[in-house]
Amino acid sequence: MSSTMLEAAVFSKSYFDPNGLIVAMEGSQAVGFAHAAFGPTKDSTGIDTTTGSILIAAVIPHGDRDAIGRGLVGKCEAYLQGQGATTILGGGSPEMRSFYMGLYGGSDLPGILDSSPAMQSLFDDCGYETHERIAVLRRYLDGFRPPVNRLQLAIRRSTVLRVTDQPLCRSWWEAATMAGVGWRRYELRNHAEDLLGSASVWDMQPLSSTWNIPAAGLLRIDIEGSRRGQGLAKYIVAEAMHDLAEEGVEMIETHVSSTNTPALKLVESLGFTAVEYGTVFKKTSVTM
Hints:
Layout (H helix, E strand, L loop, with lengths): L2 H9 L9 E6 L2 E12 L6 E13 L5 H18 L4 E4 L21 E2 L3 H9 L2 E13 L9 H9 E7 L6 H7 L4 E8 L4 E9 L3 H5 L3 E9 L8 H15 L4 E7 L3 H9 L3 E11 L5
Parallel strand pairs: 3-4, 10-11
Antiparallel strand pairs: 1-2, 2-3, 4-12, 5-12, 6-11, 6-12, 7-8, 8-9, 9-10
């Protein structure tokens, strides 16, 4: 993780507060760090300080590793409470996507990955409980073809799919979190130009370069309320996957909460499989 990567994914964000970044030092050597931050208000126009998250808490191999980790979490909790937090989470999520996109977790923030057992154990030891499980799902695009059936053909005949790179952001939070990120929005409209739904994907840098494979992340799918249940989400995502494959993208990844059964069924029907899971933790009782 280079200073350039940290600058892009953390320090350059307009809402970055250095007081939330806690570093444990032993003499002149950093032995661990943790980062506490907040997510958006319900209308995505600002920061909601009532719910905070400790996005990451990492300690190098050390004889006092457990004590250092607990100290870092405690400092983060004190910072969040000082800002007004009454709920504290452990790990980021699509709702708390404030920092570290492309640096940890994959296409989005999946809480704390199962492949980071020491970090998960730290939150367990600090009194956190499992709040949400998030599946990391991938689909390799070699040979992918969109489904062909009557419903999908009917959608194709009655709609237009518009593709926009670096689209206008729909909220302050989207603009703030997507700054510096290469991304694209697929919008499905009928012939009267009514918006039916959309899907947002991004170029998963720098992870994509690390994996040495062109990869895209499916961030979100939005279907207008009255249009849900009509097969539009599957159509949009399938067409986006085909478009990305035509451009040389070899793999697409998305994250889905284990309780979001419709979304899981959607992506699994398109060939996505779970390759990893993460846990979002929650502190059930916080001492003020």
